[in-house]
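This section describes the prediction task in plain terms. A model, or a person checking by hand, is given the sequence of a single protein chain and must write out its three-dimensional structure as a string of C-alpha cells. No templates, partner chains or ligands are provided. The sample shown here is typical of the held-out split.
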Amino acid sequence: MTSNNALVPDPDKQDDLASKFWQWPFLNVGLRMCSWDDGIIKYFLLGNPAVYWGSTASIGILGLIVGYYLVRWQRGYVDLKQSEIDYIHYSGLYPVLGWFLHYLPFVIMSRVTYVHHYYPALYFAILTAGFLMNWSTNPLAKRNRSYEWAVYGGLYVLVTGLFVYFSPIVFGMTGSNKDYRYMKWFEKWRVTD
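The expected answer:
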C-alpha cells in the first residue's frame, strides 16, 4: 500500500485538532468536535482529569512497586506469598502490558494523531489504577473495613463531582462558548477558543 489516505502530517498545514502522543496520558489537550458557532450545540472531547491523571500515575506507581519487590527479592527477602505475586502478575502487569501495546503504535508511527487514539490504552491504565487501589486498600480492610470504604467513597465523590463539573462538555454546550470559560483549566484546553 503506497498511500495512507493523507494521514501523514503536512508540515505546511496548521492542524488545531491534531495532538502528540505524549499529551494524551496527561490530559494536555482535548478535541473540539464541531463548529464553535454560538447557534449550535458544541462538544469537546476531554476526559475526567481524576481518571486520566490517576490512571497515568498508576502506571508509574506500579513500576515502582514491582521494582521495590524485585530488589527486595534479589536481596533474599520474602515479602510476598506466591498468591500475591500471581495477583500482581495477572491483575497489575497484564493491564500495563495492554496499555503499552495500545500506546506504543502511536509513539512510533508518523501519522496524524488525535486524542481519541489514546482511549484503548486508557482502558488498560484504568484497570491498573483499579488494581493499585485494591492493592493499597487491602491492608486497611484487614484492620477496619470502614477505612477502605472511606477511600473508595472519596474517589467516587471526586470522579462523580468532576463528571458533573464537566457535564456541559459531555451533554453539549449551548449558547456562547465564553459561558464555559470556567472549564478551561489549562491553556491547551481549547474549550472556549
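For orientation: The beta strands are 31-32, 44-45.
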